[in-house]
Amino acid sequence: MATSSLRRGDITARVATRLGGSRAQGEAALNAVLGVVQDALSSGDRVVLTGFGAFWVTGVKERRVRSIRGGQLTTVPGHKLVRFRAGQDLSNTVKG
């Protein structure tokens, strides 16, 4: 099964088409939505788009791992990850 990637420019063009505006307006709309999502996640809020899915930030603790090459113990610092869980409507659309 061959897959293709939908890139930012492609999304911008599709948003512009759906809004009936220019590509610049589509880009402005996309930037506005992504900016709101980024701001919410960076402040620790959960972002829920009903039917599409939910984004949230989770913390990963510092841990020690063994290097594959040398067998030496290395410390991986704690960090944060963005998680996503697909909503029911998105899941049903993908399943077909």
In short:
The chain is an alpha+beta fold.
State the main characteristics.
28% strand; 96 residues; alpha+beta; single chain; 42% helix; HU Protein, Chain A; 3 helices
Strand content is 25-35%
> How many domain units?
2
Shape: elongated
H-E order: HHEEEEEH
**What's the total count of β strands?**
5
CATH class of the largest domain: Few Secondary Structures
The second-level CATH architecture of the largest domain is Irregular
Q: Give the rounded overall mean pLDDT.
A: 94
| CATH evolutionary superfamily of the largest domain | IHF-like DNA-binding proteins
SS-derived structural category:
alpha+beta
Main sheet: strands, sense, barrel: 3 strands, antiparallel
Proportion in helices: 40-55%
Low-confidence stretches: none
List the strand order in the largest sheet.
1-2-5
Tally of contiguous helical segments: 3
User: Cα-atom Rg, whole angstroms?
Assistant: 19 Å
Question: The CATH topology of the largest domain is what?
Answer: HU Protein, Chain A
Gap between N and C termini: 15 Å
Write a structural description.
The model has no long low-confidence stretch (mean pLDDT 94). The two termini are 15 Å apart. Strand 1 (47-49) and strand 2 form a beta hairpin. This protein folds into 2 domains: 7-44, no CATH class; 46-96, HU Protein, Chain A, CATH 4.10.520.10. It has 3 helices and 5 strands, in the order H-H-E-E-E-E-E-H. It has a 3-stranded antiparallel beta sheet. Helix 1 (8-19) packs across helix 2 (23-42). It is an alpha+beta fold. The longest helix has 20 residues, at 23-42.
